[in-house]
Amino acid sequence: MQGKETKAVLRKAPARLFFLILFLLSADQLSKYLVRKWIDAHESIDLLPFLSLENIKNSGIAFGMLQGHTGLVIFTSSAIVLLLIVTALAIMHDSRFLWPLAFLVGGSVGNLIDRFAFGQVTDFLRLPHWPAFNLADVFIITGVAMLLRVFMLEPEKNEEEKEEEGDGRGVSASV
User: Is 46 assigned a catalytic role?
Assistant: First the structure.
């Protein structure tokens, strides 16, 4: 019975991955839309003693690096997103990677949409002594942390578990 359950999970993996990415992407884009609509550029609203909302435009990458190099940032970001999507399709049969890849793809695509639409991303979360960031950035960092957890704390599947998933020839993903 275990083999049938595994096959059923494998059939649902593409849909689960797609909907997780769509949910994260929607949350990111909605939050940026609301900030652009309700908060003036460089306005700051204190939410908590350690957290404020600001409407900051960032044409660079993390920590404001590569400001003014929008074309290079878009090209590099597009290549990374494509690589992430291909990787997700290739290894989505391994449930350990479902959430990390969804967070990485959702966050990366969220920032890429901003770069194509506006030539920059909207950052709005501000912690003391830290550059502003957005939900997509949080998703990317979360995805990286989840991947590190998978690689460091979860043992690789043993041969018996691999054989239960397939016929020993591996699982392929179609693009």
Answer: no
**Long-range Cβ contact pairs of 166-171 (< 8 A, separation 24 or more):** 171/10, 171/93
pLDDT tens readout for residues 51-64 = 999 999 988 787 66
**Residue 17 has which token pair?**
């991955």
Q: How many CB atoms lie within 10 A of CB 55?
A: 20
Question: Pick the catalytic residue: 40, 46, 123, 167?
Answer: 123
**β-sheet bridge partners, residue 126:** 52
Of all residues in the chain, the percent with pLDDT exceeding 70 is 80
Cβ(122)–Cβ(32) below 8 Å: yes
pLDDT in tens, 81-115: 899 888 877 877 788 888 999 999 999 999 999 99
- Three-state secondary structure readout of the chain: CHHHHHHHHHHHHHHHHHHHHHHHHHHHHHHHHHHHHHCCECCEEEEECCEEEEEEEECCCHHHCCCCCHHHHHHHHHHHHHHHHHHHHHHCCCHHHHHHHHHHHHHHHHHHHHHHHHCCEEEEEECCCCCCECHHHHHHHHHHHHHHHHHHHCCCCCHHHHHHHCCCCCCCCCC
**Quick check: is 123 catalytic?**
yes
